């Protein structure tokens, strides 16, 4: 069977890679493309774990209760968010869309974070992730916690890159 450029089987059989086929990915650095290929080809382990809306409804409020009390993150979040119940509902919709592909979230997280660019520091991201890991580990089953943590790590990386891009573009 002859493989086509971009064919999943070709990626694992040594056939042509997406980097060699005409695609919008050609202009992207190879590590970025390979990361996207790995994520695309990964089996949907989330469905096998049965992550539910109830998991999200437990984790998000518990986590943000800690954020609000945190000495570093509390003043940042409390200063930025006026309506916590509304914001928590939006965050639950976000995580539902991310982990359950529900499509409930209709916002633009990059725009929301760039708006608070001065607070988007590596230390603050690390603190947020540490609290996320701690809370998810305490509230969820180990496999579900690991899935939430892995996704949060990727989202944090993406947000940091986006904020840095914004900073670089404004500095030029």
Characterise the protein shown here:
- The structure is a single chain.
- This protein has 172 residues and is mainly alpha-helical.
- It folds into 2 domains: 34 residues, no CATH class; 126 residues, Globins (Globin-like, Orthogonal Bundle).
- 69% of the residues lie in helices and 0% in strands.
- It contains 9 helices and no strands.
- The chain is globular and about 45 Å long.
- The N and C termini lie far apart (50 Å).
- About 20% of the residues have low confidence.
List its traits:
single chain, 172 residues, mainly alpha, Globin-like, 2 domains, 9 helices, globular
Radius of gyration: 19 Å
Helix segment tally:
9
- Name of the CATH first level of the largest domain: Mainly Alpha
CATH superfamily of the largest domain: Globins
Q: What is the CATH third-level topology name of the largest domain?
A: Globin-like
Q: What distance separates the N and C termini?
A: 50 Å
Question: Which H/E pattern describes the elements?
Answer: HHHHHHHHH
- Biggest β-sheet description: none
Write the layout of secondary structure elements.
Blueprint lengths: L7 H6 L16 H12 L3 H5 L3 H17 L3 H8 L3 H17 L8 H6 L7 H18 L2 H30 L1
A few lines on this structure:
This protein has 172 residues and is mostly helical.
